[in-house]
């Protein structure tokens, strides 16, 4: 079992993944339960329109109508809370892959087995991918199935598209955490730097529509690739998926190269 790093990592994460899954189910259930009391409230739409433009750009999807299921889910789940939770999971898991093993002083035991450094990084990263996709799947299924109980009916295909883009967003930052872990072996830096970059990227994407000098840089934000084309309304964006995948692959390659070149005895 120890020699199969991917399965061993997923086995070690089983309780955490269960807790994350239950938390997502409960979070979606809360939003679903609130939907009947919000859909007929015209004041909610007025509240959004009366928000300062910068606040609306940051915390409410552009043009979202809270009286519709799509607009409600965009504002309440997809604009902030959903991606934030998935990013926390991906960054902490990406940082735990290599840097976490070093912090726990268990990397020597792992490397004492007949496994290459490349395999260690890739299988650790594989576990991150599996865990992130699993959580996105749980959130999507919860949204579709629980939503039907309260009339929060959404097209299953568009929900799947939104969850795919959210998972890719999380994987970009999880891969960044893995890359920093591979390069430095520092758990704190592996968690802190991706978190700071995520906040900057979020603010950049949110404020670019209302701050003209930020607009040219908006498309480099992973949050633009996540939600810029509105996947809950328009489905999957192939260019956005390709950009997110390439970014993730490059960062995973950096993690491999960084870990292979590092002197672990130093």
Automatic annotation (TrEMBL):
<feature type="transmembrane region" description="Helical">
    <location>
        <begin position="121"/>
        <end position="145"/>
    </location>
</feature>
<feature type="transmembrane region" description="Helical">
    <location>
        <begin position="192"/>
        <end position="214"/>
    </location>
</feature>
<keyword id="KW-0812">Transmembrane</keyword>
<feature type="transmembrane region" description="Helical">
    <location>
        <begin position="157"/>
        <end position="180"/>
    </location>
</feature>
<keyword id="KW-1133">Transmembrane helix</keyword>
<protein>
    <submittedName>
        <fullName>ABC transporter permease subunit</fullName>
    </submittedName>
</protein>
<dbReference type="GO" id="GO:0140359">
    <property type="term" value="F:ABC-type transporter activity"/>
</dbReference>
<keyword id="KW-0472">Membrane</keyword>
<dbReference type="Pfam" id="PF12679">
    <property type="entry name" value="ABC2_membrane_2"/>
</dbReference>
<dbReference type="GO" id="GO:0005886">
    <property type="term" value="C:plasma membrane"/>
</dbReference>
<feature type="transmembrane region" description="Helical">
    <location>
        <begin position="240"/>
        <end position="259"/>
    </location>
</feature>
<feature type="transmembrane region" description="Helical">
    <location>
        <begin position="17"/>
        <end position="38"/>
    </location>
</feature>
<feature type="transmembrane region" description="Helical">
    <location>
        <begin position="77"/>
        <end position="100"/>
    </location>
</feature>
């Amino acid at each position: 079992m120890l020699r199969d790093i991917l399965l061993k990592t997923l086995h070690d994460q089983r309780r955490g993944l269960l807790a994350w899954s239950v938390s997502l189910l409960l979070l979606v259930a809360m939003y679903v339960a609130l939907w009947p009391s919000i859909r007929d409230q015209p004041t909610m739409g007025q509240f959004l329109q009366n928000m300062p433009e910068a606040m609306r750009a940051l915390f409410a999807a552009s043009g979202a109508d809270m009286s519709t299921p799509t607009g409600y889910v965009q504002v309440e789940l997809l604009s902030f809370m959903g991606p934030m939770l998935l990013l926390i999971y991906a960054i902490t898991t990406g940082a735990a892959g290599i840097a976490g093993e070093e912090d726990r002083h268990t990397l020597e035991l792992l490397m004492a087995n007949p496994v290459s450094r490349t395999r260690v990084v890739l299988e650790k990263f594989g576990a991150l991918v599996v865990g992130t996709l699993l959580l996105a799947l749980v959130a999507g299924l919860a949204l579709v199935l629980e939503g039907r109980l309260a009339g929060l009916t959404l097209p299953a295909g568009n929900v799947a598209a939104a969850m795919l883009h959210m998972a890719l967003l999380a994987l970009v930052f999880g891969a960044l955490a893995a890359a920093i872990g591979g390069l430095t072996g520092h758990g704190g830096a592996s968690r802190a730097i991706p978190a700071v970059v995520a906040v900057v990227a979020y603010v950049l994407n949110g404020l670019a529509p209302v701050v003209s000098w930020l607009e040219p840089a908006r498309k480099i934000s992973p949050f633009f690739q996540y939600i810029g084309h509105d996947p809950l309304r328009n489905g999957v964006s192939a260019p956005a998926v390709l950009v997110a995948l390439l970014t993730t692959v490059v960062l995973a390659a950096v993690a491999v190269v960084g870990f292979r070149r590092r002197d672990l005895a130093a």
